[in-house]
Amino acid sequence: MTSLFQRNDLWGPLDPAEEAGYGEDRPKRKGFFTDTSICIGCKACEVACKEWNDVPATHFEMLGSSYDNSHSLNANQWRHVAFIEQPKRLGQQDTGLRETVDLGMPTMRPEASETEKPDFRWLMSSDVCKHCTHAACLDVCPTGALMRSEFGTVVVQDDVCNGCGYCVPACPYGVIDRRHGPDGDKNVGIAQKCTLCYDRLDAGQTPACAQACPTQSIQYGDVEELRERANQRVAALHEAGIMDARLYGNDPEDGVGGTGAFFLLLDEPEVYGFPPDPVVTTKDLPQMFRRAGAAAGVMLAAAALSFLGGRR
Amino acid sequence: MAEAHPVGFQWVMEAKARGAKVIHVDPRFTRTSALADSYVPIRAGSDIAFLGGIVNYVLSNGLEFRDYVVHYTNAATIVSDDYQDTEDLDGLFSGFDPESRTYEPKSWQYADAERDGEQRQDHEMQRETASALQHETHGISVEGNPPRDETLQHPRCVFQILKRHYARYTPEMVARTCGVSEEQFLEVCRAWTENSNRERTTALVYSVGWTQHSVGVQYIRTGAILQLLLGNMGRPGGGIMALRGHASIQGSTDIPTLFNILPGYLPMPNAEQHQSLQQWIDSVRHPGAKGFWANAGAYGINLLKAYFGDAATPENDFCFDLLPKITGDHGTYRTVMDMIDGKVKGYFLLGQNPAVGSAHGRAQRLGMANLDWLVVRDLFEIESATFWKTSPEVATGEIVPEECRTEVFLLPAASHVEKEGTFTQTQRMLQWRDKAVEPPGDCRSELWFFYHLGRMVRERYAGSTLERDRPILDLAWDYPTHGPLEEPSAEAVLKEINGYEVATGRPLSTFNEMKDDGSTLGGCWIYTGVYQDGVNQAARRKPASEQSYVAPEWGWAWPANRRMLYNRASADPDGRPWSDRKAYVWWDPDRGEAGEWTGPDVPDFERTKPPTYRPPDGADGVAGLAGDDPFIMQGDGKGALYVPQGLIDGPLPTHYEPVESPFRNPLYGQQGNPTRKEYDREDNPMNPAPSKAHTDVYPFVFTTSRLTEHHTAGGMSRYVARLAELQPEMFIEVSPELAAERELEHGGWATIVTARSAIEARVLVTERLTPLRVDGRVVHQVWLPYHWGEGGLVTGDSANDLIGISLDPNVLIQESKVGTCDVRPGRRPQGAELRRFVMEYHDRAGLDAEPANPIVTAGPMQDGDRDPAKGSKEEGTS
Predict the structure, then answer these.
(1) What span, in angstroms and rounded, lies between the C-alpha atoms of B743 and A293?
(2) Distances B334 to B2, B155, B216, B658, B677 between C-alpha atoms, Å
(3) Which of B454, B517, B703, B853 is spaced 20 to 30 A from B202 at the CA atom?
(4) Which residue of B has its CA nearest to A97?
(5) Do A50 and B722 make contact, defined as CB atoms within 8 angstroms?
(6) How far apart are CA A226 and CA A131, in angstroms?
(7) pLDDT in the model for residue B621
(8) Closest C-alpha to B138, from B719, B678, B790, B640
């Protein structure tokens, strides 16, 4: 008997555009490789994204979390640069901090001695929608507002979205969000997130954030090629003694079938605000369907029995 | 660099990916430090001690690039018998006059050349007119052949003087002065020297953090000495990169917005010294001297022809008399004080926001409030247009809006995407910009504004027969315009800047085609070639992949499209590359008739002058330079390790403490730069510095700089929502140690106080700031961005309100990168209470009761003066 779902429909490796029904002449899957080891935290990606996509800037408050004042990915923040100040060493970097100072007074950190240099590093990382191979937001969208593009990306159609918000809890990364704001403002109530600049891709252009990135921390291209490049970069960093370097989202066998936008990180994903082991929230849908079906069958049977019983 | 020049930083990242080691020296850990291989925290204002320490490391270990140093620098040149060093005079050089605080530089000259005309009176005047800027590209004037000792053994040769001068800049002294550990300092020394030789070169990059000091020019000089000693000048991958403060600041010195120079670094004529065209030209070209300035007459006359067109003839000295002349200090700070004193009536501000962006904000605003009229052209209604109704002085009652006499004209300006023209960046490269969109509403370009303002002023004066109106009426003011707004043609202006033959209109190809008879004209001789063959060379955009790595067909660089100055030094004295790896420009004996210089760049040397050329006796001008004299703008063709002329504060960089410092100078009795320009006025008080008492009233060192997210005084970012939200509030960065000491709460408020004012800021406690151990005790440094004012979408106090006016004597740039302050928790007093609060600090510091900080402090050493163990409670063990 054929199941309602094939293997890999909801998880595992897959070409999402092919699965969505785009023909042989479809373009190669497009995505981002964000190499946080060369991010300088300039936030040009945030600004370029907002300029191109006309995303409003409404949050004028200092957060006190290093240089991050845009908080997180949300409806008004499709790129978000995190700043992490850490008592860890970056490879062989010599920070020179506090190596000669012994204040002889209580400090807020473990006491620094003259021989032992305290470690410090400042990590920066530009986060974005992951454009999952198996995108739960898309799976749960009742209106078809969220769609898979021919580039394998996940795009919201503002004019189709009815603002039901099912996609919001479905996203394992907390990326998608309905826009808040006064009635009448652009797209208030509508689900919003990175489109990988669908309109620019259509015109053969690079997404705005990658175009603006001065250090090529954000690289745009064919996912397959980017994955190869990412592997080489990790190897090079390991060779340079930066053993913390690792990839996040590049593995097609992971819980979301790999992401179209993946990252080179220098620490555990949690440090950057990423979930450590994201799983597409619709992964268990078949099982849930089967169980729900079984439960329904049992209930139907019970109901029938009760009627049968009633005739006695 | 990542912080203020993120786009340029991509090349650092690319170099790093290819294996370059990146070292970052800065008072605070920045976005640059985050990606550097090594970060070195340093006390703000101690850079000469740090670099001098490296010079000493090089010289005492014999690590200089000997062949380069002997042939290409003035190391071998012998200096006058009368010269005395800071070693002999406790931090002063010979020739010092305590009265005028200037030098008689006669004893600084090369041996046998003491008769050179420079006098103390010259230095006094030169300080007033920022003469080093006037002579920025001029170099030393040298006549004849000063004696040399190429063994570098003569006790008075520059090499030996240098060695003695820096002998006391030991690693221990560096640690004591800069707060850098000896270990880390030596790491930097090793990295720099090991990477500087025939096969490898090291680049030095600095930014505004070096220039804004009372001894800023000498900071850069120290860098130059080091790079010359290590053979890193004129060679690929080497050099000194000055990162400028804006997109076209280089352009605005080449074609200046400064009071003391004219386009192409021609000095603004002085009413006393330059009574005739010939006097003015001779002051630039120094008749009899060697080098390329011998042609200055043609450059000056071409400029006058560009200004005055047909009216400029040989008979009337090309209208030299119509040029404005300077009589002394007309710099921006002098002008502000003259405004306060009621001596200035009107003021134009274009793309400048001094109410927020210039040192001593209160003086700036009080000055502007005392004008008859003020014209502000900007993209938004910035603080310099609203100071009369919104400034802190309105809150304190010092400016009363109803009574403020200044009439402000705010005119909307077109942004850089709404007008065409060029940017000249730090590599002297001009890049043409097209207009992307029409400016909205009444917004207009600067070109439009000045052209039409000039046109209308000239219409008002038309028909005047008064002699005094000739400068306006005789101007050549006939640029073609186009479109409904009558926008002048920027290309026509570029063509005039390039220069052309008057009779035919043919654009000149090089400045060598400039004639001194009025048959050619050109607005900026160093830019000649940018419109070669009638083609806008600055608009060239050939991709890197289609040309050599020097990329000569991207934009256009002055002079003559050279991408690297002094590149003759990339070859050895015989004209061969120092190494294959670093080949750049070399002598090819088989090219041309008898050999030519060649390579991927335009040689910065006469193309056919062979390496073996030696000038005949008595030769001057260009012919006076030998075939192995690569520094062709210097009179002796040599890189200047030692500068006998041109600087007010001495021939060699010397560590002086900042004007405001918690420390006595550990190296000399002379505390600060003795020749600095001071304005000792009641409205410009300075915090006490040693040897005065009460330095503990302002115990901390502060420095200011920019954030990536904002543009200088915020006129282009605080009013733009998508930028303003990225850094929405003024803040102060403090170390956890200082936060604990002063009970500053992360995210809370702090008040920062100096003798000028007090400001408030949100507190960011971060380990990126570190206390340093200096001269035996711990000093805290705090850092402030300076982007906020009371206008825009995000508001805050301006860090520039804290800074006093005290200037480098060579270029009249303010010391705004270091000062002392107090920091306390909580918000500052508001309204009239603010001044009372600041004055309480004055009382405690004895500012009003005692005379200003003594400037000349050199003299017989007093016991214990410079002994750290006696001056402090803690022992100096670093």
Answers:
(1) 64
(2) 34, 43, 19, 21, 11
(3) B703
(4) B770
(5) yes
(6) 14
(7) 79
(8) B640
Q: Which two tokens stand for residue B163?
A: 């060695």
ipTM attached to this prediction: 0.91
CB contact residues (below 8 A), chain A span 240-299, against chain B: none
Nearest chain A Cα distance for residue B711, angstroms: 13
Backbone angles phi, psi at A212, to 5 degrees: -85, -20
A85 touches chain B (CB under 8 A): yes
Largest Cα–Cα distance of chain B, in whole Å? 80
Predicted local confidence at residue A6, as pLDDT: 58
Query: Which residues, 6 or more positions from A246, have their beta carbon under 8 angstroms from its beta carbon?
Result: A234, A264, A265, A266
Nearest to B783 by CA among B752, B745, B827, B741: B752
Q: What is the mean pLDDT of residues A150-164?
A: 96
Note whether A214 and B708 are within 8 A (CB): no
Partners of residue B741 in chain A, C-beta under 8 Å: 105
Best probe of the B interface among A97, A211, A213, A216, by most B CBs < 10 A, is: A97
Angular region, B327: left φ>0, alpha ψ -120 to 50, beta rest? alpha
CA-based max dimension of chain A: 94
Q: Among A122, A185, A218, A232, pick the best mutation site for testing chain B contact (most B Cβ within 10 A).
A: A122
| Cβ contact A106–B740 (<8 Å) | yes
Quick check: A57 and B772 CB within 8 A? Answer: no
Q: Which residues of B178-213 are buried (b: 16+ CB within 10 A; e: fewer)?
A: bbbbbbbbbbbbebbbebbbbebbbbbbbbbbbbbb
Q: Is A67 in the B-facing interface, judged by CB distances under 8 Å?
A: yes
Specify the pTM: 0.93
Residue in B with minimal Cα distance to A214: B7
H helix intervals, A95-182? 136-140, 167-170
Please name the residue of chain B whose CA is at the shortest distance from the CA of residue A215: B10
Closest CA to B594 of B579, B580, B612, B576: B612
Nearest by CB: A59 against B40, B725, B741: B725
Q: What is the spatial distance between Cα B445 and Cα B424, in angstroms, rounded to a whole number? A: 18
| CA B494 vs CA B191, B267, B420, B526, B537: distances in Å | 44, 22, 11, 13, 10
Does the beta-carbon distance from B34 to A41 stay under 8 Å?
Answer: yes
CB atoms within 10 A of CB B402: 6
What is the edge-to-edge ordering of all strands in the sheet holding B346-350? B346-350, B373-378, B407-412
Are B740 and A105 an interchain contact pair (Cβ–Cβ within 8 Å)? yes
Which residues on B lie below 8 Å from A99 (Cβ)?
A: 181, 183-184
Contact residues on chain B for A66, CB-CB shorter than 8 A? 764, 766
Phi, psi values for residue B737, rounded to 5°: -65, -45
Q: Is A239 on the interface with B (CB under 8 A)?
A: no
Q: Report whether pLDDT(A251) > 80.
A: yes
Chain B residues whose beta carbon lies within 8 Å of the beta carbon of residue A103: 737, 771, 778
Q: How many CB atoms lie within 10 A of CB B792?
A: 23
Q: What pLDDT, on the 0 to 100 scale, is given for residue A84? A: 97
Q: φ and ψ at B869, to 5 degrees?
A: -65, -30
Distance set, CA B576 to CA A103, A172, B585, B608 (Å): 56, 64, 9, 15
- Chain B hits for A70, CB-CB cut-off 8 Å, are 725-726
pLDDT band of A121, cuts 50, 70, 90:
very high
Q: How far is A261 from chain B (nearest CA, A)?
A: 22
Listing DSSP states for B176-193 in one string gives HHH---HHHHHHHHHHHH
| Count of C-beta atoms within a 10 Å radius of residue B574 | 13
- Tens digits of residue pLDDT in B300-324: 999 999 999 999 999 999 999 999 9
Hey, are the CB atoms on B724 and A124 less than 8 Å from each other? no
